[in-house]
Automatic annotation (TrEMBL):
The keyword Hydrolase is annotated on this UniProt entry: yes
The protein's name in its UniProt record: AB hydrolase superfamily protein YvaM
PANTHER family with a match to the protein in the record: AB HYDROLASE-1 DOMAIN-CONTAINING PROTEIN, HYDROLASE, ALPHA/BETA FOLD FAMILY PROTEIN
SUPFAM superfamilies in UniProt: alpha/beta-Hydrolases (SSF53474)
Source organism (scientific name): Marinococcus halophilus
Source organism phylogeny: Bacteria, Bacillati, Bacillota, Bacilli, Bacillales
């Protein structure tokens, strides 16, 4: 199984296809299993997924006080391991937080930023409740129950449900707790105006968790692309895979075309 090393920690990843690199960043616990429906993108891209440190098959390592910042450095280590000049980050839900920080911190490595059902801060009471539930499950030893609930909400494919459930059950409870605790207090709004790469957000019109965060993105990233998938809720990578994959394919192609058509800087 392929691993890369970040800060002396072995982190599991999967890579398919060749071409421009797409790195998909999952919410806590889900890891690679969340993005199985994105494998067809490997016809046009190098599709990379990974289990964050302390999640699934990845080692726990030393967990820093701010795990979102540490997660960002892990993504940088992954991009370096892949020998990728630039990557397009696809941050799903909570995975958008380290993705936004990466685009801010490493503009030279970021070809584009795609945020899927994501947010720059916990703004709605529904999302805050989801974070509280995640923290509570680690206290009460209910990760297995939460894993089954998340697996069921993401897909009707029983084999994929088992993989998602396994990934969550095999994640370190203290790491998941730190992820949720840090996520509750993280606020990336001040970073967004400094992000220079092409940016797209994708939301389901029925998403009760993060729909209101579109206002934050419009305010702080006025030049971004915003796409809605009608009739869909939060779990777009699994429940709206065809539509989402087509949107990503089109956006990356247009971003590459715009980048290549810009005149070179004079020296």
């Amino acid at each position: 199984m392929p691993y890369f090393t970040s800060d002396d920690t072995s982190i599991y990843y999967e890579s398919r296809g060749e071409g421009p690199v797409l790195i998909f960043v999952s919410p806590p616990g889900l890891g690679c299993a969340a993005f199985e429906q994105q494998h067809p993108l490997a016809d046009d891209f190098q599709v990379v997924t990974f289990d964050p440190r302390g999640n699934g098959r990845s080692e726990r390592g030393n967990i820093s006080e701010n795990i979102i910042e540490q997660w960002t450095e892990d993504i940088y280590a992954l991009a370096s391991h892949l020998q990728a000049g630039q990557v397009t980050l696809c941050g799903y839900s909570y995975g958008g937080l380290p993705s936004q920080l990466f685009a801010y911190r490493y503009p030279e490595k970021t070809a584009a930023l795609i945020m899927i059902s994501s947010f720059p801060r916990v703004r709605t009471w529904m999302l805050a409740g989801k974070f509280r539930l995640g923290i509570w499950s680690t206290y009460e030893n209910l990760i297995g129950t939460i894993g089954k609930a998340l697996a069921f909400s993401h897909t009707s494919d029983q084999e994929q449900q088992k993989r998602i459930d396994w990934n969550i059950e095999n994640s370190s409870p203290d790491v998941l707790e730190r992820m949720y605790q840090n996520g509750r207090s993280q606020d990336n709004r001040s970073l967004l105006p400094a992000i220079t790469c092409p940016v797209m957000t994708i939301f389901g019109t029925n998403d009760v968790f993060v729909k209101k965060n579109q206002h934050d993105f419009r305010t702080y990233l006025p030049g971004m692309h915003n796409v809605h998938i009608q009739g869909k809720a939060h779990q777009l990578p699994t429940r709206a895979a065809e539509e989402m994959n087509a949107i990503i394919r089109k956006f990356v192609a247009e971003s590459q075309s715009a980048s290549s058509s810009q005149p070179a800087e004079s020296t």
